[in-house]
């Protein structure tokens, strides 16, 4: 994997907060370079008009940018942090114990978030509030009874996701039995394993059964399972994957919280343990820090960890693929249909270390000049013209070669493809768009027939490249 490709992959699992009510230039650059998205906080929101312009600008930077926010109703809201949420909190809904009402409220909250440009609502809270002196959960929980919490969590997940946003049940494996706020220091749950499973784990099983697309970790130690915080514990996260059968995106709670060590170290440990999306946190509250430097340092730490072998490249690729499938509603269906539409000739799977070249393409007026969606996934090098091909292929000796045509072919495109095939007849030619019936014939080729992100993902899958 080339350095630019590795850095883009590392960035694609990082979710920072930022300062301001418009998109900072540094954030625009990092999003364009692959950063997963952002987490909005109260300081980013002025009113409905402003936040819609902000989220629109974020989404315009690149297809697939994720905008997330803590929207729980009650006391925890970002969109209405000044005036207060218009939606009742979980404790009120639990006291009412009307699952239809809970689903209706969640659907309304989800519709509000969707209209504001939010993709992922970081809720509902699935913690069982079994400790009356809990300083951080309290009214954010549906109650102290696991069965009650579970049925309302499931209703909330269904309501949110029916409104077109992804739900994120939190805080796994359960934060309700603690007397310590993980924003400040590391809490412990000291119950025996049987008690823990019956009390704290059960509502997360209900959330998974209801189809929640995300689960957020807690920075808590469950002593019956592991001495490490859940966010960095393979055993605890394995419980979510293996025992509960969750196959969606695992999101970390904020890595700037007091319960965790240095956020760069926490990010590496969390990714290695099985977290897919790394939330850095709020650069304004409670203690301010440099938002740009924090995001860059976490990405740098992930890149270094993969290079050193502290994190397996396959683990990063797996996390990035899960996050990418979350980024666009219906992405899984779209990619599946696009994959079925492929025309594939020969064995097109690329061996590790393959070299990809991006041929120049004609610009369609309707589509405009758009960057290649496949090239970043392959770490492809842009080829200005056919004269540049021999030098590029010299550096690819002994490795697989692919040449990507993104969009419509023209004379310059054909000359590049012809030059590649003349030197490397085994090269894979990938048309992300229509086939070039006037161009050279390749023994190994992929044709998507139309462009776009789903087509790029389908081509990457066919080539055996993580996306």
Q: Whole-number radius of gyration?
A: 24 Å
Biggest sheet statistics: 6 strands, parallel
Q: What share of residues are in beta strands?
A: 5-15%
Helical element count?
16
In words, what does this structure look like?
- The protein is α/β, with parallel strands linked by helices and 467 residues long.
- It has two domains: 3-329, TIM Barrel (Alpha-Beta Barrel); 335-463, no CATH class.
- Helix content is 40%, strand content 13%.
- The protein has 16 helices and 16 strands.
- The protein has helices at residues 3-11, 25-32, 48-61, 90-96, 99-115, 146-162, 193-209, 234-243, 263-273, 291-308, 313-327, 331-340, 375-378, 389-394, 411-423, 453-463; strands at residues 14-16, 37-40, 66-69, 120-121, 166-172, 188-189, 214-217, 221-222, 249-251, 278-281, 343-345, 355-358, 381-382, 401-406, 428-432, 444-447.
- The strands form four sheets. A six-stranded parallel β-sheet has the order 2-3-4-5-7-9. It has a six-stranded mixed β-sheet with strand order 11-16-15-14-12-13, with helices on both faces.
- β4, α6 and β5 (166-172) form a beta-alpha-beta unit.
- α6 runs parallel beside α7 (193-209).
- The radius of gyration is 24 Å and the shape is elongated.
- The two termini are 13 Å apart.
- Residues 364-368 have low confidence and may be disordered.
């Amino acid at each position: 994997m080339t350095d630019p490709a590795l850095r883009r992959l590392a960035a694609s699992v990082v979710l920072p907060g930022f300062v301001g009510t418009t998109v900072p230039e540094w954030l625009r650059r990092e999003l364009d370079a692959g950063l997963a998205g952002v987490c909005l906080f109260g300081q980013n929101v002025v009113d409905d008009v402003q936040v819609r312009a902000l989220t629109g600008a974020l989404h315009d930077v690149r297809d697939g940018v994720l905008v997330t926010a803590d929207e729980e109703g009650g006391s925890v809201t970002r969109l209405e942090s000044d005036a207060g949420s218009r939606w009742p909190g979980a404790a009120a809904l639990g006291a009412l114990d009307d699952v239809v009402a809970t689903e209706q409220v969640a659907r309304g909250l989800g519709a509000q978030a969707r209209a504001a440009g939010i993709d992922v609502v970081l809720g509902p809270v699935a913690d069982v509030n079994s400790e009356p002196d809990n300083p951080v959960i309290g009214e954010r929980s549906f109650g102290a009874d696991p069965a009650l919490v579970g049925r309302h969590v499931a209703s909330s997940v269904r309501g949110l996701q029916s409104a077109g946003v992804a739900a994120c049940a939190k805080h796994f494996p359960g934060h309700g039995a603690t007397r310590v706020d993980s924003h400040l220091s590391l809490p412990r749950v000291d119950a025996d394993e049987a008690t823990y499973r019956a009390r704290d784990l059960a509502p997360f099983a209900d959330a998974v059964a209801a189809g929640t697309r995300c689960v957020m970790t807690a920075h808590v130690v469950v002593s019956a399972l592991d001495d490490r915080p859940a966010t960095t514990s393979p055993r605890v996260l394995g419980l979510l994957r293996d025992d509960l059968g969750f196959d969606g995106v695992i999101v970390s709670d904020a890595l700037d919280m007091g319960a965790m060590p240095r956020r760069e170290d926490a990010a590496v440990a969390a990714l290695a343990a099985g977290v897919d999306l790394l939330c850095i946190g709020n650069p304004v509250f409670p203690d301010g820090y440099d938002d740009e430097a924090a995001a860059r340092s976490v990405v740098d730490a992930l890149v270094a960890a993969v290079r050193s072998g502290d994190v397996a490249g396959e683990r990063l690729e797996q996390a990035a693929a899960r996050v990418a499938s979350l980024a666009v509603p219906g992405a899984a269906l779209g990619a599946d249909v696009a994959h079925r539409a492929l025309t594939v000739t020969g064995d097109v799977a690329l061996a590790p270390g393959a070299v990809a070249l991006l041929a120049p393409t004609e610009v369609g007026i309707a589509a405009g000049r758009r960057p290649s969606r496949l090239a970043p996934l392959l770490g492809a090098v842009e080829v200005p013209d056919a004269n540049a091909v021999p030098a590029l292929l010299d550096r690819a000796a002994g490795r697989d070669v692919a040449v990507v045509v993104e969009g419509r072919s023209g004379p310059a495109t054909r000359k590049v493809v012809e030059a590649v095939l003349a030197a490397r007849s085994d090269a894979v030619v990938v048309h992300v768009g229509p086939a070039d019936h006037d161009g050279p014939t390749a023994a190994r080729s992929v044709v998507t027939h139309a462009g776009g992100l789903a087509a790029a993902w389908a081509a990457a899958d066919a080539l055996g490249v993580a996306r």
